[in-house]
Amino acid sequence: MKNISLLLVFSFVLLQTAAQELALVVDDGKVAYIDTSGKQVIQTDFKKAASFSNGLAAAQEEKKWGFIDSSGKWAIEPQYDRVNAFDSGLALVSKDDQWSYIKTSGEVLTLAESPDKYYDFNDGVALYRKGEKIGLLGTDGKLILEPTYKTIKNFWDGHAKISNGELWGLINAKGEIVIPAEYEEVGTYNKNGIWGRKGNDYGVFINWKFTPVPDATKIWDFKHTSDLTYAQKGEKIGFINNQGQWVIEASFDKARAFSNGFAPVMKDKKWGYIDEKGAQIVDFQYKDAETFSSDGLAPVKEKLWGFVDTTGKLVIPMEYDISVGFSFFQKNAEKGFINGLARVKTKKGWGYINTKGEVLGDKWYKNAELFTDVK
Fold first, then answer.
1. DSSP per-residue codes, 17-42
2. Do 260 and 268 touch, CB atoms closer than 8 A?
3. Structure confidence by residue, pLDDT tens digits, 29-74
4. What's the CA gap between 349 and 171, in Å, rounded?
């Protein structure tokens, strides 16, 4: 019996420590946070606040900003004039016109030397500018890379584009060169593939080596949802794989990324869907169309947005506006369903619907943001 009791306690602890997602909503002029059941779990008197990141959310009280925890209590007392969201355990804050980084404990990160300009942490690093050059700063406050480049773009999955002039390359989060700055264009890093342009040749990098794609005149970024991406040949759009091979003929006017096996494509000003073999699975009939989510639904539009399943059946009527919402940290957020809920808008306000089209909590808000993990 004792062993059973211990098992129950252990199970309860696991449930208590499981990831919790909360969304910021504005109701009656005040900020609150709801969970994915629609229950309001944090009630506040704040008129200005932000979504959770790294377990804390920025909030303003009497013109000063601090951070609350998931119970709604102050974790870092309001004392700052400006704050940004936490990322990699650090947030950029300003007090009396002085910028600094703070940890989630409120402790200030010690830097050996202050930069000429501060940047947010992203993927465990922050850009570090001295004069005209930029390097990398680590979460311990030490330089990972001395100021070396004129430009370093934001990090995505541990990699960032770099340039010292007109040519581009790629570095990793250790500051190591993975693609030398020898290309007119380099795509955003993605584990499924990277494209680039050298002279007039568009191509992909295979084992970091540039390989031209025959007849390509433009290539778009690979996404985390497929090892295919769309590319242009002449005036039409088709799809290539990460080996640089054309796998779907360039016959479309516009396209979006493959997600969960399907991609929106446009012909004659109408959107439909194809599978990864190029077969049409939803007729060309919509004014606009977005990608399929893991829930098997995709947003489609005439005057307003509704949702179709993978057979093309309209399962949620076209009566909504949609957008990705606003988030500092959901890099790959897309329109439509995320973890079973879609952020939508009607004349009644902003809210969330489930895959059955039911309104979460039967409630509409003046504003509603994306759900984020509070851990």
1. HS--EEEEEEETTEEEEEETTS-EEE
2. no
3. 999 999 999 999 999 999 999 999 999 999 999 999 999 999 999 9
4. 44
Gap between the Cα atoms of 335 and 320, Å rounded:
12
Cβ atoms of residues 152 and 136 within 8 Å: yes
Residue 342's identity, in one-letter code, is A
Task: Give per-residue pLDDT as tens, 76-94.
Answer: 999 999 999 999 999 999 9
Give the pTM: 0.89
Q: Torsions phi, psi of 10, nearest 5?
A: -60, -45
Q: Tell me the HSE value of 293 on the side-chain side, using a 13 A CA sphere.
A: 21
Q: Following DSSP, what letter does each residue of 106-175 receive, concatenated?
A: SPBPP-SS--SB---EETTEEEEEETTEEEEEETTSSEEEEEEESEEPPPBTTEEEEESSS-EEEEETTS
Tokens of 258: 């493959």
Of all helices (H) and strands (E), which one includes residue 356? none
Mean pLDDT calculated for residue range 318-343: 74
**Which helix (DSSP H) or strand (DSSP E) does residue 78 occupy?**
strand 74-80
Q: Which residue has the tokens 């309860």?
A: 12
Structure tokens at 221: 């970024």
| Contact predicate 166/196, CB 8 Å | no
Distances (CA, A) of 89 to 43, 66, 83: 25, 15, 14
Answer yes or no: are the C-beta atoms of 233 and 220 closer than 8 Å. no
Residue 238 in tokens: 């088709």
What is d(CA 32, CA 162) in angstroms, rounded to the nearest whole number? Answer: 40
Which CA distances in Å does 53 have to 90, 127, 331?
10, 20, 13
pLDDT one-digit tens code per residue, 89-117: 999 999 999 999 999 999 999 998 899 99
DSSP conformation letters of 213-231: PTT-SEEPPP-TT-SEEEE
CA distance 228 to 82: 41
